[in-house]
Amino acid sequence: MGIFARVATYGRLVRFSHTIFALPFAVMGAVLGTGGLPDPATCFFILMAMVGARSMAMAMNRLADHAIDADNPRTKGRELPAGLVSRAEVCGFLIVSLGVFVAACALLNPLTLKLSPIVIFVLLSYPFAKRFTSLCHLWLGAALGLSPIGAFVAVRGTFGPDALAPWLLGGAVVFWTAGFDVIYALLDVEFDKSKNLFSLPASLGPGGALAVSALFHVITVGILVAVGLIVPLGVAWVVGVVLVAAILFYEHWIVSPNDLSRVNMAFFTLNGLVSLLLMAALLVDRLG
Prior knowledge:
Distance between the termini: 47 Å
Strand content: under 5%
Order of helices and strands: HHHHHHHHHHHH
CATH topology: Tetracycline Repressor, domain 2
Shape: globular
CATH architecture: Orthogonal Bundle
Number of strands: 0
Number of domains: 1
């Protein structure tokens, strides 16, 4: 396998395209921390930390779920169970990613480095949450919700009196992520039950899980409104939040317990728009 094919394999292994969920919120946290754009070096180290953190987390996810993925007809074609990479290779990739993350934190500021073990714990533990709690979706949300908070600390080096905004933004990410992860988990309801794995769809059934997912997204919109009031932000943010609310409504409109054919569209396409819309709205208000 050539070098480019190998890189592509690892990109698929860690679902690099899904970086679109967290990276825009890191940008937003950095902008909130500086009131503008950070210097190029800080931007590079934040990106380095994000790539390292996410790659580390996904590598652990693949290792933790190796046997589960191999048994699941939907996931048995993934790179590790399909034999495209070995467990030893994924372990090595995890260690390198961990090193990249810690190095980036050290290059940013002392507080970022001191807080890095908390981030590492959350990211490396979330793949195991579905083994003991149906609230595993919120655990995943917490992993992504650290991105705006971490980026804020990365540019500030401290928590100031105006740190409430990135914390609220992180909270919005928690409930937004949990909401769409519940929808994605609908694809594995029967499999999760057969393997004694926990998820809201497996515990509450598809109908009940979708109701909780909708509640999570209502909370998300409410928190986004609060962010706009606290910062404060202007017309662009209002328009962005209204569009996000419409997208989330549509996301729930196209998925039902009796029709899961558009789950992937609801999971990836629509939620990718959510993160990009919010980032654009914040940039327009803060930089425009």
